[in-house]
Amino acid sequence: MEALLSNVDWPEIGIASWDTLVMVGMSLLFSVLAGLPIGVLLFLTSKRQLLDQPLAYGVLSFVVNVLRSVPFIILLIVMIPFTVMLIGTSLGVAGAIPPLVAGGAPFFARLVETSLREVDRGIIEATQAMGANVRQIIFGALLPEALPGIIAGITVTAITLVSYAAMSGVIGGGGLGDLAIRFGYQRFQTDVMVITVALLVIFVQVLQMAGDRLVLYFSRK
Amino acid sequence: MIVFNQVQKSYQVDGRAIPALHPTDMTIETGEVFGIVGHSGAGKSTLVRLINLLEPPTGGDIVIDGENITRYSAAELRAFRRNVGMIFQHFNLLSSKTVSDNIAFPMKLAGIYSKTEIRSRVQELLDRVGLADHATKYPSQLSGGQKQRVGIARALACRPTILLCDEATSALDPQTTQSVLRLLSEINKELGLTIVLITHEMDVVRRVCDRVAVMDAGRVVEMGAVSDVFLHPKHPTTRDFVFESESIDSQERQEDLQKASGRILRLTFKGESTYQPLLGSVARASGVDFSILSGRIDHIKDTPYGQLTLSLVGGDLESAMTALEAADVHVEVLR
Q1: What is the distance between the alpha carbons of residues B7 and A198, in angstroms, rounded to a whole number?
Q2: Which of residues 96-155 of B touch A (CB under 8 A)?
Q3: What ipTM does this complex have?
Q4: Could you say which of 3.90.226.10, 3.40.50.300, 3.90.1150.10, 3.10.290.10 is the CATH number of the domain covering B2-245?
Q5: What pTM does this model have?
Q6: Pairing of β B84-88 and β B162-166
Q7: pLDDT of A41 above 70
Q8: Which position among A14, A39, B103, B109 has the lowest Cβ density within 10 Å, counted as fewest Cβ atoms?
């Protein structure tokens, strides 16, 4: 066992795992906080929906598409000046969070938009017929009805952020990805690579299972 | 009272205006059950949605209890909508809320009721629609009929004066349809609520409506008391609906008539005359022989009626017809 995993520095792995957790957790939090209102706006301004604002929808949709079409590895590099401006450094765990949010938020916004579209139009109509205003329709009917879909969206976003966070090792972002690149790839320490990948797999499995449980709990259909 | 004054609605499709409702005049009296019947695409859905302005009209005025609702501001419109309950074909209940919370929802949205008021009103409504045991269930755990009862309770929560029913029984089986219609009739009588219901089933109209409008291709083609429209349909669309509800197709009817000999009369009995042994006595007195080609006895809302198609041979036809008409029977000569 010792010989097989001779290069593995367990305390280092522990720190890297924690860093990954922090990066994913923080960037997921901000992605949801930013992506949810964007997703709701995308839905409301789209054609034949409550606000029906083609221009606003066009602009918002374009920005979201641009952010989503840039490969994350490029986004990481493009974001460096903004990240430095925002938090003073582009390195480490903190430096990785802004590009992760820039990648995660538009992704999550689209998932929110899709899950809102799944809500039966009749429910919106019924709520309107009760004399609800737009704010009441969003918070009273749309979001509660779309909750299982939104939770599924958070799960998918979290998992995407795990792989993005691993990529951020390329620009010195820290975490398991950083470890895998510096030791597993650049120093040919296959055992380190295997361990980090295994940890990432476990991490993703746990996230998916937790997400599925929550979706089931909130599904009333 | 709901008054439509040259109300029209058209949709913009690819820059062209497609009419959904041609200019229409219509009056719905307070406290009546008004049916709107038509095939899908006839414009009845649009018509009912004009009453609470879910669809704004492209022309004309809608005046409800003396107020022109087409001139309402957004806030006035929201307040007005609390006065108009609506139930739907697919119930449109919130799947994320329990039965109780669904019924409480419009009251919470209104923001003018206290928690205790909401709780007692919900309990009262649950009892009224017979769902007191299901208060904490979710809609997915209910049958179609139960869901529609929740829909009705929800629509009544803010004590509206008008109830709109959009194909409210079309997704239900015949028995459940009956019980939901009975409930609608009851609340109409108890609360004096004006009910406007749209349907494609003439049977629904016959059971609960006082008056009916028949729609075809965006126009109201016939309107009047249900017994008049049902027993003496004038427009071809109305006739189709009436025959459909009797499951007689008009082709069959024609063939039957051709095989019969003598004069053919259609007699319509309404109210008490339905139960009188009239035919026999008239036949004896006038010496006319008759055979029954088709017939039915049924109810329009609470009024019994009978309709018989007879072929008559020999005797004094004139005096037979006079005697029948004297007994309040409507006589039509078909041949």
Answers
A1: 69
A2: 96-97, 105-106, 108-110, 138-140
A3: 0.85
A4: 3.40.50.300
A5: 0.87
A6: parallel
A7: yes
A8: A14
